[in-house]
């Protein structure tokens, strides 16, 4: 019998891609020589925000800043668990100023436990909360030393995972949490094994034996850069095999066009920071 999936109300922070463009290349998806439509990126982002609101979630916004075309990717600028905020420290100098804008947003909105890391840490790009442990990616962006900083400040157990394919430079491009763990169940995830080292694949199989295994085609369209509320899942429209698997496991997938945002290596999750607690 397919397990009944239950949506839980979420709170998300988003940033309009008002200044979105691709003017530098810091991942394999970015090509400054290709045309980019800011108008289309805003349309894609607006549909994402509207989708969250249709599902009953609370959506908050941070003001975009000129000269920061990747600020739309809010997930990279903070990890929030239990009301504690672990900020970001970007590897690429082009994105470094984003961290302080998000830090000030948190302080202006009543957050007091805000810690800015000393090690390179690209937040929910490489930190994925399962409800029980924090999965932490490394290999291209976030330093391994940032994993211990996260454990110390957030007070949650951290499991390190090594990424080995530069196309999947952040953990959230290769893995997503579909249902969080609670007192009676393990977390349910989807992931693309080939994005991870052999040892990390063994870890994932041990921790999540019932995970949905994504195909190469799912991964190549950033299908795993999805957002789930426990039942509803928003994902790129090309991720059809993954959507079929989600339906089989009791989820309700919603397709979005992210073709313009993907030119910078981003999708639904990259645009979405979850504000927990």
TrEMBL record:
The keyword Transferase applies. Keywords: Transferase. It comes from the Bacteria. GO terms for biological process: L-arginine deiminase pathway. One of its GO terms (molecular function) is arginine deiminase activity. Gene3D superfamilies: L-arginine/glycine Amidinotransferase, Chain A. PANTHER family: ARGININE DEIMINASE. This is Amidinotransferase. It comes from Actinophytocola xanthii.
């Amino acid at each position: 019998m397919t397990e009944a999936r239950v949506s839980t109300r979420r709170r998300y922070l988003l940033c309009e891609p008002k200044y979105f463009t691709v003017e530098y290349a810091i991942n394999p998806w970015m090509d400054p020589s290709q045309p980019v439509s800011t108008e289309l990126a805003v349309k894609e982002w607006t549909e994402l925000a509207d989708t969250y609101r249709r599902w009953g979630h609370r959506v908050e916004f941070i003001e975009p800043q000129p000269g920061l075309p990747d600020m739309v990717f809010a997930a990279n600028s903070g990890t929030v668990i239990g009301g504690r905020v672990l900020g970001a420290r970007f590897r690429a100098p082009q994105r470094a100023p984003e961290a302080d804008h998000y830090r000030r947003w948190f302080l202006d909105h009543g957050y007091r436990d805000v810690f800015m890391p000393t090690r390179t840490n690209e937040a929910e790009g490489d930190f994925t909360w399962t409800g029980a442990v924090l999965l932490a990616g490394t290999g291209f962006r976030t330093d391994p030393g940032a994993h211990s900083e996260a454990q110390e400040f957030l007070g949650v157990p951290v499991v390190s995972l090594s990424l080995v394919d530069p196309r999947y430079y952040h953990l959230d491009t290769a893995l997503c949490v579909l249902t969080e763990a609670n007192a009676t169940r393990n977390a349910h995830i989807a992931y693309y094994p080939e994005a991870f080292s052999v040892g990390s694949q063994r870890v994932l199989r041990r921790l999540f034996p019932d995970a949905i295994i994504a195909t190469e085609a799912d991964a190549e369209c950033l299908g795993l850069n999805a957002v789930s509320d426990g039942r509803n899942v928003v994902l790129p429209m090309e991720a059809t095999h993954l959507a079929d698997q989600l339906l089989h496991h009791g989820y309700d997938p919603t397709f979005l066009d992210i073709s313009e945002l993907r030119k910078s290596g981003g999708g639904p999750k990259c645009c979405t920071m979850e504000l927990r607690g």
